[in-house]
């Protein structure tokens, strides 16, 4: 760009840099922006590619780590527009942009390290999609984007975050481009598709930064500062500059043009290299050589006979074929330069090919400005800017762009400069090119209309003389004046390629961003979720977070669905699981609980559990609610209906007791560990363990129930009282729900102790000493020797002693069983019966389960006690005490027996009492 080129946005940049801390130069930001993990990630990615292709030359040694993002979003300018050279916009006093943001809550979010035990996870429990080496390399983008979010401490940093995301994509695009010629990528087109996808993402982040910087600056303008300039004389450049400042649609259209041109300039150097010339600054050298040769020989030339620029079209005679080929190549390169917004490079190419006249013709579109009339002008005269005969040039360029005698590329070049849409579309083959042509035409029409409607312009004498000239009516009939019209025309394009490319995800996203229709973007994105590429999903999630942070209104429900899908992907992909906590924090409260609980329910490694809870705490998630949800979800897997169990099995002695602990049972048991990390959750641990034990007791899985209680620390009840004491005065009793939880825990503990006591009694009862056989005669007279008699007596004495000890021990076990069973039967205020206080929110399901277990367990314990008493010598009479306890109105245990159970129990007690007579 030469020294005369400037732009309207150059003035906007001055305004931003002096008055706003948000809209600043990304080049300065990136100079101070430190990303400590970036270099390591990129070098590691390069090494992965080297390993994949088995290249003996390390790729790292051939690549220098640099900040490769050449596109500066704050430096979007109109150097390619009608405003080139304009620098006269004065700074406005702009207040700091104030944007509602969810990023303020992330100040405490630091970059969490990947869990140390992550590599030890059971990989079979995770979905790990197969990737080729290049896709594996790009997975570091997930970490980099997460780091960008962590480093964004407030809404003031969101544009720095967007710039960093664009830079990350740029680096990975270059990395993939570097590996595009490797062995494995030659056989895998998906790598090229991935590179194109990341290129589109990079360009979309660039568009986001450009559009929303301007929109937020526009929203922050002080309307009272608008100055009435209707009667002020100004030049074309000044008038158009102020027009851009006031007309948001045209300014945004120019931003889109600059964005499209910057995208085209990314690969610009490779296109320009195609241009070649063989002699210094000689135009059509082969034709010139032929003319000289034929003139010397007196031969009539078979080509043009003159060498002026208009000769081929005026005389309708061709150039030499080699010159035609060079001319076509030059025009293609010149158009590529203009498409990339580099008119100065196009002029340099023309000069290098000896076409100074063409280079001069590319200069005529510039707006006229005489700085000597400015208020701050000095006595020293300053050179004029722009083209004083711009209108005349535009009329000539218009007719030239419509003249079929010229090459279609040449018509497109001048059509782009004067605003001939059809001339540009004739050579545009892609969606981006057509979009550029339409927006160029829109800006040209609006600017030209504004110039014609401005009565107080500085007009040079040449324009006064030529004032009768008018732009052809066909120019105004193009009717490309609104953004919506542009996309409607492109959707109805006769070019099927343009239609198809317009439906591609990133192009659709870019369209919605330009139109400001975020809801349409999200609605369409929901359709993609069924089969979406991870990188596209990552982009959508971060785009939503950005839009949310700057206060853009959109359908929150749709956005949350997309964010939840991204969190689900992070959960499934083993390499990104450590990011789940941070992104879950952006979901609604209820979704946070369900999503992170679903994730934690799959984690079995104890160390990983602790680390994932730490990550959740750093992200600000509700740990108590999440861990509670985890246990409830695991508990709900295959949980039986207790009422049905009691009906089906009741006290059926044929039902097996103490079944083997299955994998599902083990998972439910281990789930209690989630609640014992935090002392404040100890009451919840008791509550959830009670629920699991109730389930196991209903299924008669006593060993599993015992293991659940072993998970509860022995000091849990004291901890519950201590934690309550921190919240309330010591004189305030525990709330009814906490009190009932503790009581239920003690009830279940008492019941399992009876089962253990009965198990001990049962084992001892069936291990009764057995008497030895009497000694047999060993002599010929069938007599027993004295030594044998003595040994027999000693064996008999030992047997009698063992029996006495067995009976004494059996007595002890019997007393222990009776004591523990009576502890259950006579439990204060009833076993598994809640205290009398009324709860605000009653759990009807729990109350029904407690009632079912009382009806199932109490009669069973009574049967066990009678069995123990009647099987233990001299304890039959104690059965009467059991009958009194059951019949007592204080505890009303008789209500827990069915008629058949009651008759059976009374008959057993009666038989026991008869035996005592």
UniProtKB/TrEMBL annotation:
InterPro entries: Nup84/Nup107 (IPR007252). It is found in: Chromosome, Centromere, Kinetochore; Nucleus, Nuclear pore complex; Nucleus membrane. GO terms for molecular function: structural constituent of nuclear pore. Gene3D superfamilies: 1.10.3450.20, 1.20.190.50. GO terms for biological process: mRNA export from nucleus; post-transcriptional tethering of RNA polymerase II gene DNA at nuclear periphery; protein import into nucleus. Pfam families: Nup84_Nup100. Plays a role in the nuclear pore complex (NPC) assembly and/or maintenance. Required for the assembly of peripheral proteins into the NPC. May anchor NUP62 to the NPC. Involved in nephrogenesis. Belongs to the nucleoporin Nup84/Nup107 family. This is Nuclear pore complex protein.
């Amino acid at each position: 760009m030469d020294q005369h080129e400037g732009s309207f946005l150059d003035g906007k940049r001055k305004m931003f840099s002096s008055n706003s801390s948000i809209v600043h130069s990304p080049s300065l930001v990136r100079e101070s922006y430190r990303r400590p993990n970036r270099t390591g990630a990129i070098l590691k990615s390069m090494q992965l590619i080297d390993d994949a292709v088995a290249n003996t030359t390390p790729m790292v040694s051939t690549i220098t780590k640099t900040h490769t993002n050449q596109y500066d979003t704050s430096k979007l300018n109109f150097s390619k527009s009608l405003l080139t050279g304009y620098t006269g916009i004065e700074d406005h006093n702009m207040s700091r942009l104030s944007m509602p943001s969810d990023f303020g809550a992330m100040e405490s979010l630091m970059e969490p390290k990947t869990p140390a035990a992550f590599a030890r996870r059971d990989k079979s429990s995770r979905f790990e999609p197969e990737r080729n080496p290049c896709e594996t390399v790009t997975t570091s983008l997930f970490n980099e984007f997460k780091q960008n979010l962590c480093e964004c401490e407030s809404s003031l940093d969101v544009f720095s975050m967007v710039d960093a995301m664009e830079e990350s994509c740029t680096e990975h695009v270059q990395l993939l481009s570097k590996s595009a010629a490797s062995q494995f990528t030659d056989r895998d087109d998906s790598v090229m598709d991935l590179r194109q996808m990341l290129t589109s993402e990079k360009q979309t982040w660039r568009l986001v930064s450009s559009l929303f910087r301007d929109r937020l600056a526009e929203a922050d303008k002080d309307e009272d500062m608008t100055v009435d300039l209707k009667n002020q004389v100004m030049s074309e450049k000044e008038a158009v500059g102020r027009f851009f400042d006031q007309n948001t649609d045209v300014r945004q259209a120019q931003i889109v043009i600059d964005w499209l041109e910057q995208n085209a300039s990314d690969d610009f150097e490779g296109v320009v290299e195609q241009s070649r010339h063989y002699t210094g600054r000689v135009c059509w050298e082969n034709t010139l050589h032929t003319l000289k040769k034929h003139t010397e020989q007196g031969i009539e030339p078979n080509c043009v006979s003159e060498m002026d620029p208009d000769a081929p079209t005026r005389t309708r005679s061709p150039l030499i074929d080699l010159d035609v080929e060079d001319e076509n190549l030059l025009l293609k390169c010149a158009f590529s330069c203009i498409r990339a917004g580099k008119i100065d490079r196009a002029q340099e190419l023309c000069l290098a090919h000896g076409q100074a006249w063409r280079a001069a013709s590319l200069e005529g579109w510039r707006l006229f400005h005489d700085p000597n009339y400015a208020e701050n002008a000095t006595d020293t005269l300053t050179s004029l800017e722009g083209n004083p005969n711009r209108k005349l040039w535009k009329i000539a360029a218009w007719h030239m762009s419509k003249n079929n005698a010229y090459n279609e590329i040449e018509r497109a070049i001048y059509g782009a400069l004067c605003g001939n849409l059809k001339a540009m579309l004739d050579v545009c083959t892609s969606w981006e090119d057509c979009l550029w042509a339409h927006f160029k035409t829109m800006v040209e029409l609006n600017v030209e209309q504004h110039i014609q409607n401005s009565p107080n312009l500085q007009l040079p004498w040449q324009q006064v003389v030529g004032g009768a000239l008018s732009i052809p009516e066909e120019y105004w009939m193009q009717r490309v004046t609104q953004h919506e019209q542009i996309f409607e025309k492109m959707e109805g394009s006769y070019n099927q390629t343009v239609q198809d490319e317009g439906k591609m995800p990133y192009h659709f996203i870019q369209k919605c961003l330009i139109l400001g229709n975020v809801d349409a973007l999200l609605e369409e994105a929901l359709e993609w979720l069924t089969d979406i590429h991870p990188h596209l999903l990552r982009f959508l999630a971060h785009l939503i977070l950005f839009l949310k942070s700057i206060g853009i209104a959109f359908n929150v429900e749709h956005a949350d669905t997309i964010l939840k899908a991204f969190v689900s992907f992070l959960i499934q992909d083993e390499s990104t699981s450590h990011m789940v906590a941070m992104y879950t924090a952006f979901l609604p409260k209820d979704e946070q609980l369900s999503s992170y609980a679903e994730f934690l329910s799959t984690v079995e490694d104890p160390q990983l559990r602790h680390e994932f809870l730490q990550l959740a705490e750093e992200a600000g998630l509700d740990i108590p609610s999440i861990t509670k949800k985890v246990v409830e979800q695991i508990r709900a897997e295959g949980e039986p209906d207790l009422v049905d169990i009691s009906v089906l099995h009741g006290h059926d002695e044929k039902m097996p007791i103490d079944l083997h602990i299955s994998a599902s049972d083990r998972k439910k048991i281990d789930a209690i560990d989630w609640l014992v990390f935090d002392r404040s959750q100890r009451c919840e641990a008791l509550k959830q363990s009670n629920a699991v034990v109730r389930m196991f007791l209903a299924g008669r899985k006593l060993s599993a129930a015992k293991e659940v209680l072993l998970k509860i620390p022995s000091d849990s009840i004291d901890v519950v009282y201590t934690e309550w004491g921190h919240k309330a005065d010591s004189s305030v009793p525990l709330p009814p729900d906490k009190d009932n939880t503790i009581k239920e825990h003690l009830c279940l503990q008492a019941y399992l102790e009876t089962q253990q006591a009965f198990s001990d009694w049962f084992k001892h009862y069936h291990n009764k000493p057995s008497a030895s056989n009497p000694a047999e005669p060993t002599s010929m007279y069938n007599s027993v020797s004295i030594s044998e008699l003595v040994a027999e007596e000693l064996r008999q004495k030992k047997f009698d002693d063992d029996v006495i000890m067995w009976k004494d021990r059996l007595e002890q076990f019997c007393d222990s069983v009776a004591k523990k069973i009576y502890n259950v039967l006579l439990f204060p205020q009833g076993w598994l019966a809640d205290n009398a206080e009324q709860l605000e929110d009653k759990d009807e399901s729990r109350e029904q389960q407690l009632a079912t277990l009382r009806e199932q367990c109490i009669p069973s314990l009574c049967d066990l006690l009678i069995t123990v008493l009647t099987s233990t010598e001299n304890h039959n009479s104690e059965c009467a005490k059991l009958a009194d306890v059951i019949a007592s109105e204080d505890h009303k245990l008789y209500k827990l027996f069915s008629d058949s159970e009651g008759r059976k129990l009374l008959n057993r007690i009666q038989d026991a009492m008869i035996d005592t007579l």
